[in-house]
Specification:
This protein is α+β, with helices and mostly antiparallel strands. 40% of the residues lie in helices and 13% in strands. Keywords: Metal-binding.
Length: 192
């Protein structure tokens, strides 16, 4: 009987690229300090306690992947190549970070729901913007997305680009009070 030796292949870990500040801001749309704040605020207490895969991603790395995908939406494979991770890692990270941000939405997005708060909002707008009897501002914008496989034609806007029509309101301090991102790009803003 032939003797053989079971030799495991050594795992090779890629070294993360180190970007200078200008390139970092272009890639992730934030400087390092602000990106780390976002990561620590949204992801620290939302970590998966049992990481069963090769190497766990830090909260900062997860936020980098998430923001890179938002800044340049397209194929996840492109983000994976840019950041030296696997495409499936990008996919899982997008879900994890999106759910973490969504879980904290009530801490950040509010609307005046009592007469007292409504009065404060009206006074703030009148004092800072010189616009009486107004509690905020509303606007819509198209956020570019890749064409969905189901009902993809509904997401093509009048410029021929696939998008989601996002409506947002803000108060006198220019803080978002509500966001609605449920409308396909073919929906006109006046219909929202």
């Amino acid at each position: 009987m032939a003797a053989f030796m079971n030799v495991r292949r050594r795992k090779v870990y890629k070294q993360a690229r180190i970007y200078n500040d200008d390139i970092y801001r272009k890639l992730f749309r934030f400087n390092r300090e602000n990106l780390e704040w976002l990561a620590n605020h949204f992801l620290d207490d939302n970590e998966d306690p049992v990481e069963t895969r090769g190497g766990a991603l830090s909260p900062t790395r997860k936020m980098e992947i998430f923001l890179r995908n938002l800044g340049d939406p397209g194929f996840q494979q492109g983000v994976a190549v840019d950041l030296d991770v696997n495409q499936s890692t990008v996919s899982r990270t997008l879900i994890t970070v999106s759910e973490a941000i969504y879980s904290k939405r009530n801490n950040w997005i509010t609307f005046p729901n009592t007469n007292d708060l409504l009065g404060v909002a009206i006074n703030e707008r009148a004092n800072t913007k010189r616009m009486p009897s107004i509690i905020g501002a509303i606007d819509c914008t198209h956020v570019k997305i890749t064409k969905p496989q189901i009902y993809g034609d509904e997401y093509v806007n009048r410029k021929g680009i696939c998008s989601i029509n996002v409506q947002a309101t803000c108060n006198a301090k220019e803080i978002f009070t509500s966001v609605d991102a449920t409308w396909p790009g073919s929906t006109y803003s006046r219909k929202l």
